[in-house]
Amino acid sequence: MALYIGYFAAILGTICWLPQAIQVWRTRDTKSLSLTANLLFLLTVTLWLIYGVMITDWPIIVANIASVSAMIAIVAAKLKYK
User: Where are its TM segments located (predicted)?
Assistant: First the structure.
C-alpha cells in the first residue's frame, strides 16, 4: 500500500509542474517567474533524485526524474526568454 501512495504522490508532484513548463514554452512569458526560486527547486529535486538512487526507492526516483526534467525546461525557458 505504501508503494502505491508513493507512486501516486510522485505522479501528482510531477504533474503540478508540467502546466507551468508547457505555458512558459508556449507563451515565452517568464517575467513573473523567479530564476532564483526555480534554481533552488531544481537543486532540491536533483538532491531528492540522488537520494532516491542511493536508497533505491523507485517512487522517489521516478518522481524526481520527471520533476528535474520539468524544472530544467522551466529554467531553460527563463534563461532563454528573459
Answer: 6-25, 37-54, 60-79
Q: Is 30 helix (H, G, I), strand (E, B) or coil?
A: coil
Q: How far is 59 from 32, CA to CA, in rounded Å?
A: 31
User: Measured between alpha carbons, how far is 61 from 14 in angstroms, rounded to an integer?
Assistant: 12
CATH of the domain spanning 2-80: 1.20.1280.290
Q: Distance between alpha carbon 16 and the CA centroid of its chain, in Å?
A: 9
Tell me the pLDDT tens digit for each residue of 46-80. Answer: 999 999 999 999 888 988 998 999 999 999 999 99
